[in-house]
Sequence to fold (338 residues):
Amino acid sequence: MRGAVIHAPRDVQFEERPDPELKEPTDAIIRTVATCVCGSDLWFYRGVNPVTDPTPIGHEYVGVVEEVGDDVTTVRPGQFVIGSFFASDNTCPHCRAGYQSSCVHRELMNGCQADLVRVPLADGTLVATPERPADELIPSLLTLSDVMGTGWYAAVAAEVRPGATVAVVGDGAVGLCGVIAAKALGAERVIAMSRHEPRQRLALEFGATDIVTERGADGVRRIRELTGGVGADCVLECVGTNESMQQALRSTRPGGNVGFVGVPHGVDIPGEDLFYSHVGLRGGPAPVRAYLPDLIDRVWTGRMEPGRVFDLTLPLDQVAEAYRAMDERRAIKALLRP
Ligand SMILES: [Zn+2]
Fold:
């Protein structure tokens, strides 16, 4: 088979790799139908996270089951499936509490920008769709593997409730999916923080009611102005830089909550500031698996169309161009088809 391998910053190659094989009786092998490049892949591409050896890359996938191990009972060959970027058993205490991304047996998926993918703990990780999806549903189903599930978790972690005023920091695919999630959970007002016109437009189409272009202290001031000096009830932090985190914390009203899903890079939160802010903070890698059944149903029944975050579709063998386009912000998110 063929797949993407990152060799060094800005050096992603599409190359022959050995076909994955069933290693454990709980594994499945899937043939990828669509995969994509994640904002978190760019941390490696840009050299922010080190690349020490050539490494297969990619963790977002949908596909058709080719083969399952002897112990797999919930999915079977031929089914169209979606799984999280963390494999999980879905049975341990953390999974049962809804935190599958902290599963005691979790395994981070990697090498999914490829023709074939080995999925560990297939029963706990994969969810099959009711039948083979129509082609136009595939981009939206693919977002459930990470970005839409992550946006959903950001909104859940920020405790978005009907009537809430929500601010979303970050206009990447996760932030835009956070807008969808906030709206779906009943937010009355959704303030999207974005400087990029195409992303602003998409945020408004997804249900944002206001756009704030300012950042940092100016962004915080603008949120306060828009909320009668109070601050937002819920803030979704979808970037992971220190600036975006400070902006999120300071945009939240006392008693409000920040849901943070941007992988932190250099974030430093002084305990005393947090103490006096009265702001609740919950985040981490999203337990995407917990939301898959509900989100699949929402996509299947046309209640949400997060696949619109993909503004570039390329054949999988052009994966290097997908990285370049996202790195240069020519694309919000690139979808790859084998
Ligand atoms: Zn578990």
